[in-house]
Amino acid sequence: MALKEEKNQLGISLGQALEHYRNEHHLKQKDLAEKLHIDERTLRRWINGQIPQQVDELKRIADTLGLDYEYLGLSSSLYLPRTFEQIDEAIEEGWSYLQQLRYVEGRAFVEKLVRDVSFQITSQDAHWLSRLARARHVAGHITSESSRTENVPAAFQHYHEMENIARLLNDGLLLNIALTYEGDMLRRQGHVDEAITYLEAACDTTSDAEARGNTLQLLGRAFMAKRDIQGFENAMAEATELGTAPHTGITKGLYNLGAVYEEYGKSYGWIGQTTKGLEYLDMAEKHLPATAHWGLVLKTARSMALVRGGDITNGGKLAIEATTLCYQTNNYRMLERVFTIERYLEEKAHEYGQVQNALREALKGPVERI
User: Fold this and answer.
1) Which of 160, 193, 226, 309 is the most exposed place for a label (fewest CB within 10 A)?
2) pLDDT at residue 21 above 90?
3) How many domains are there within the chain?
């Protein structure tokens, strides 16, 4: 009787978890069933309380959805270690969440991945530590994209732990990635000089073309934040050159020639060089993969350039589209770009209002009909 009651309680827990997950991520039952690699009838049975009989199947559900075992009513003692191959596959799956704009789901998945790998490490074995560093890498990115500026320290912490591992392993490539993104997180928080220090230090850790090019692109971004145009153009020129060199895949596709062109386009557009900015964004679109991630990045960059160039109608339309998509996916990093557009429009409206009031005051008396 006790075993039957325990199964009923577990079934209710699983059904509630599946329905909560489906509603939170706006999924239809067929979409969730496809994600779990089951048919819809099986999913409906699980939702209605007919749970899988195998503990391994429940564990698979938890791993697939990025849920803690306890959330499905399982004891943490049922934890089963992952193999190197399973960890590598999970890291790659984590990156796929980023490209598909599935940040809420992805963040839960990678945070659990980091916990699982950390739990398995019992010594300073390089194979385990390097995988933990790579798990921290993807966790940092997903956390960054889904965080407002005030919450960026959570992403910074992932990169800082990656830095600690890289120094322990004396791995210059991993150290480059960690320092690069620590620097970018500092820039987001407004600590631009400190960010430049981190980014310049990252440049000295490796000769890998892809890693170094990625660092230089983000260094250019930091220089632009200071309005150091010469520093920006120097860093970006080398980043452009390295963008055509053979790549190892260390940046997981986030650095490439298209990304460099997007950086140029966004930056030139925002400082008022609209034609130049839009030309670079057109070049970026031709070179970037047609993924949801890059589509959103380009949409926000193009809206910024158009608005600053005076095309309020088209720029505003793109900004609204980007805002809707950001809220749907919880991409607060891109949303903050749109907030800069809104603040710019507010400033301009204030300026126009002051001029209008002054002109109205001057225009006393009859007005000639034109």
Assistant:
1) 193
2) no
3) 3
Using N-to-C axis directions, what is the helix angle for 55-65 and 103-120, rounded to 10°?
A: 120
pLDDT in tens, 60-88: 888 788 777 666 666 555 556 789 999 99
Supply the pLDDT for residue 105: 85
Q: Tell which of 44, 75, 106 closes a domain.
A: 75
Q: Which pLDDT tens digit goes with each residue over 190-233?
A: 999 999 999 999 999 999 999 999 999 999 999 999 999 999 99
Q: Of 45, 75, 105, at which residue does a domain stop?
A: 75
The pTM (predicted TM-score) of the whole model is: 0.79
In a domain, 318, yes or no: yes
For residue 124, the enclosing domain spans: 83-170
